[in-house]
Write a sequence for this structure.
């Protein structure tokens, strides 16, 4: 076996001489091994190239996805910033609405509500931080801003409800306010803490307005309400008292005739009596009082139009 040899004959064709080579069996074996190794290396290189190409393709795809995700995050950040501006505008509008509703505006420090404390996630937490810290920080910032805006939205929602309720109450209060004169007449005596009484000449307060008008002139309710007194009372003569709610009442004295009864509901400008001069008076007129929580106040403070003297 050691001396065994292999002869290779090469035929070129035509008249060309023959070529032959003699190779030992060991040389053939080594050549076969070399060829096999070469083929294995080529095959390995081909597999590596194929995997490398796939890896590069996958890396390029991931890079593209990352670019798209970053672009999407930037878009979301822009929308959040726009929402922040819109929320600030709503806060300013809420302040104006609360003013109309008779409420104090929300304190700026309260409106700029912060968030935090135990249980609030930090940027360094979560799987995303291990993969992409920059993306993790951006995502955290968005979550924080959204939580901040949600708190403001909840605050404004409660504020709008308060304003709505207050406006509704104020609307009912305005409706119940005695805002017109009880009769088409001339003012002969105003609300004052000191005046000379026209009958006995004594100096005493006059917590009412007197409207002079001919006897029989219609007297109207100055606001809707319920009649709580209709009859004769010392000093007032024939008098009507109406409860308008919200602690407001009105009195109409010295009437010649009464057209309402206790418990009756009346509307603004509804005729309730007629001008006269019953009780302690001189000349036909209406003695008109406004009471707030039981205390007589100046009726002119509630009239929509100035009174005529």
């Amino acid at each position: 076996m050691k001396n065994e040899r292999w002869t290779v004959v090469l035929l070129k064709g035509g008249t060309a001489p023959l070529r032959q080579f003699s190779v030992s069996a060991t040389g053939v074996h080594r050549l076969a091994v070399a060829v096999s190794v070469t083929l294995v290396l080529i095959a390995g290189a081909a597999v590596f190239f194929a995997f490398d190409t796939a890896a590069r393709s996958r890396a390029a795809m991931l890079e593209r996805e990352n670019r798209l995700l970053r672009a999407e995050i930037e878009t979301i950040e822009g929308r959040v910033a726009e929402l922040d501006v819109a929320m600030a505008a709503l806060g300013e509008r809420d302040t104006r609405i609360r003013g109309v509703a008779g409420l104090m505006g929300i304190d700026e420090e309260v409106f700029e509500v912060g968030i935090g404390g135990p249980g609030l996630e930090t940027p360094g937490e979560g799987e995303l931080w291990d993969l992409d810290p920059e993306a993790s920080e951006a995502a955290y910032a968005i979550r924080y801003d959204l939580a901040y805006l949600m708190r403001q939205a909840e605050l404004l929602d409660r504020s709008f409800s308060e304003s709505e309720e207050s406006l509704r109450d104020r609307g009912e209060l305005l409706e119940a306010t005695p805002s017109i004169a009880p009769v088409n007449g001339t003012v002969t005596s105003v609300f004052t803490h000191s005046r000379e009484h026209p009958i006995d000449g004594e100096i005493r307060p006059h917590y009412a307005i007197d409207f002079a008008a001919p006897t029989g002139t219609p007297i109207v309710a100055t606001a809707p309400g319920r009649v709580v007194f209709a009859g004769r009372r010392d000093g007032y003569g024939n008098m009507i008292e109406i409860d308008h709610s919200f602690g407001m009442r009105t009195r109409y004295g010295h009437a010649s005739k009464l057209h309402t009864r206790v418990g009756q509901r009346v509307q603004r400008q509804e005729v309730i009596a007629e001008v006269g001069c019953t009780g302690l008076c001189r000349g036909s007129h209406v003695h008109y009082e406004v009471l707030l929580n039981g205390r007589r106040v100046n009726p002119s403070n509630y009239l929509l139009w100035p009174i005529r003297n």
